[in-house]
Amino acid sequence: MSEKEKTIEFMDKLVEAEDIIGEYIKDANHCCLVDVVKKRFVGIEKNCELVKIDPKDFAQNPYIKNINIGDWQVGDVWLNKFRIYEAKHTYVNGSRTRDPKTLTTRYSFCYFDEDTHYPSLGKTTPMSKWMGVEPAEINTFASFIAEAKGNVLLMGCGLAYVAYMLSLKADVNEITIVELDPNVIMMFQKYLKPQMNDKIKIMHGDAIKILQYADISKYQYCSVDIWHGAMDMFPIYLKCLLTEQRHPKTKFHYWLEEDLHVALECIWIQLMKPFIMDELKNEYLGIFDDILKMQNIKTVEDIRNFLLADKRPIIRKWIMDNPNEAYNTNLVKILAKF
What domain range includes position 39? Predict the structure, then answer.
């Protein structure tokens, strides 16, 4: 068997494994635990982490423990603790990851043994939840909170969970929140800020414009969280990476970046076989097509190296070469070509 044939066979198996995992994992979030264990996780246990969370441990999180949340509304923005994790139902516990051995996607879910309330923020028009102080958000911000120090810039306020947790650290001097929605700012100033220390301040502004035009060199760290999920994050993420070169003194963190990269890798996995077989002649999939060409993938080892590589510098290189496309990339239109 030639090297090309071995590579194509490997890709066939990987695509099949990803399809099976995707089918089994579909609708696993917010499902009854018994149903998930019996019908969803059977056979793909290695790809699904299932963590039991003790409500008492969850209640010891400093924000949950110390910040009093009432039933508040400012304009069309609401904040309360009415929402619950239903007992023995599964919920996302953190970002997807790439298994270093099988190269397949790994998922993380959690459950509680009893109904557990958590703070959440949303809008009334339409009635929807934006975010909450819940295990997935706590876990996906943990490494940034542990690392950040000095002066920190936060793009997006939310429930000010990250700002509060950072304010408890002795090595964090100042936290500036940039928020676009004036009702969120008013909610923070009226109800949350009085419960927090003086390290935190908030300002009205557009995160993208600030990254494009402002001097943020006084900040050692900047975290951007102005999206709800990995897919709606993608076009904003490209714009943010385009501006990073303006701020060499600041280290950037993007909420859900790892999850986004795994989602993008799933697209590349689907494209690799036809790409290797030169069957993409009549399609142009922008960033996905271009980045595959940049990798010169020919062997199984090439595939492994690409899928396990840090994607931020790879994506940034494409952005620097294609700034106009990066600024106008429409993921919906790209995915419609599949």
Answer: 3-135
